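As a warm-up, study this chain.
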Amino acid sequence: MTAVSPDRDCPRCPRLAAFRADNRTRQTGWHNAPVPAFGPVDAQLLIVGLAPGLKGANRTGRPFTGDGAGDLLYPTLIAAGFADGDYRARADDGLGLVNCRVTNAVRCVPPQNKPSGAEVAACNGFLEAEIAAMAHLKVVLALGGISHNAVLRTLALKPSRAKFAHLACHDVGAGRRLIDSYHCSRLNTNTGRLTPEMFRAVFDAIRGMLKD
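Now compare it with the structure written out below.
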């Protein structure tokens, strides 16, 4: 089964579509479109972020590529054995993911990096398709509370069923688990809310889950 991605001119969210159109006139060489998932669809691990960064994935066309969040995510994945090659903040850097796929709860860049609840809901069908397409999926890593709740929505689970907390792990049925982490944003790392050591511990835990 193949995951479904939004069309380049997806109209589901009028505010995001207008912002995308404006960015296309300002930065003609950027991706400026819904950002597809990255990594093999037969992976056991799916990482779900919030949304593309304006000068990151919205520019490069690959999740978490070209911004501060990717500067922590991809080296951590390489160290944990979930990626190989070198991360050079470009979509053509040759980096490959190993048993891991990366996507976002919202596929288009939102103003101020803040999608509305309605925009998260409008994009939820694409996340549902990602999860449905991953036949070998065992672990979903949600980066932040909004991503956590978006994953629960795709699985028809109420937020009260599994509350977000850093390093919390939830059984979400069908032999799958949801694990939470603070988002690897520059804001969180600069304030010390998320340290590299804390983030590595998340992937240590995931490694253990995949051995079960």
